[in-house]
Amino acid sequence: MQLNLDPTLFEEQQFILVRELVQSIRVKLQEAGLSGEKLEDTTVSIAFSVASTIDDTSAIDVDGKEVHPYLTFRTSDETLTHCGENAYTHEFVYEALQILSRKGDV
Q1: How far is residue 46 from each of residues 10, 30, 41, 55, 94, measured CA to CA in Å?
Q2: pLDDT for position 24
Q3: What distance in Å separates the CA atoms of residue 94 and residue 103, rounded to the nearest whole number?
Q4: In percent, how much of the chain has pLDDT > 70?
């Protein structure tokens, strides 16, 4: 498999991933009975936490073993696309929630 450095495509893929995460989290919280400001705040909190873990901005250490995720996207059958550094998905959480809220997608 080929590793492709394409920061622009990587950013597009990150945003799509974050939007899906935010949407999924929000739907599950709505199903659990949350609404209004509590729904929005909890969605952001969970999504930001998950994104930060993916981005390797949260320390992951279990029993002395460190884990450092490095996000890539399969952009074709034989290609993984990356940006040359850690992901920054957490930066898209608030924007994704605003877009979904305006569109009424969730």
Answers
A1: 23, 14, 9, 14, 12
A2: 97
A3: 14
A4: 97
